[in-house]
Input
Amino acid sequence: MKFCTLSSCSYANSVVVQGGDTCILIDCGLRKRDLKPFLDRVGLSSGDIDAVLVTHCHTDHIYGLKYLLNLRDIPVYSTAGVLKQVNGHCVFYKPPGFRVLEPYVEGKIGSLSLTPFKLSHDVETVGFTISAGGERMGFITDTGYVPDRCREAFSCLDYLYIESNHDVEMYKSSAKPWPVIRRNLGRTGHLSNEQCGQVLQSLDLSRCRLVVLGHLSEDDNEPGRARQNARRHLAPGITLTSAPPRVPGQWSDKLVKI
Ligand SMILES: [Zn+2]
Ligand SMILES: [Zn+2]
Output
């Protein structure tokens, strides 16, 4: 399996995951103008996308969903709670094909097996483990902390995409209003660099080859700081990178030798 971020930041989030003959998007927060060019840049078109998996209903994760579904009928997967909130936040051109996944229960999308795990955000939010061809990836974003149930399930991964949203020191001089800062730092906000490091420390990453840091705040974080912090908690053999904001990153199979 392989994956590639199309955009990863507080403005727009979307990640392509390919395994066997199946290709999905996790979230579609892209602007309408970016959809086709960003897919094109990673060698894909909307015709290649078999499904969209949604983590939660915030705009930076679903803004482009209605535009993508207007190009093609693509099923949208998540838990019943997330899908209900997505439906409440989006005005679709036509009713989407929603498919319900049960939290903590493995589901299938073509060649991919995936399991949603509830996270801790201010709306219902799920992370995922995704498996194909004997490989496994973990996907964790938009959470104030990582629940114990995830820590157990997110061991024995080959790849990990994890939020490293902000640097607490930089937040002290942030221009953001205090209620926003309080929310982002809280139990239903986002993982800081430091918290991301603690999660990396607590997971069994003995077979992990690649960690991609995602959802970095463009105002309150720096990629170098985020990577430097994460590196301290990872074995030297694990490749580490941070996903670029507002542009596609590199495919995972270009970042690590398969
Ligand atoms: Zn977000
Ligand atoms: Zn969010």
Notes: The first strand starts at residue 2 and ends at 7. The first helix runs from residue 32 to 41.
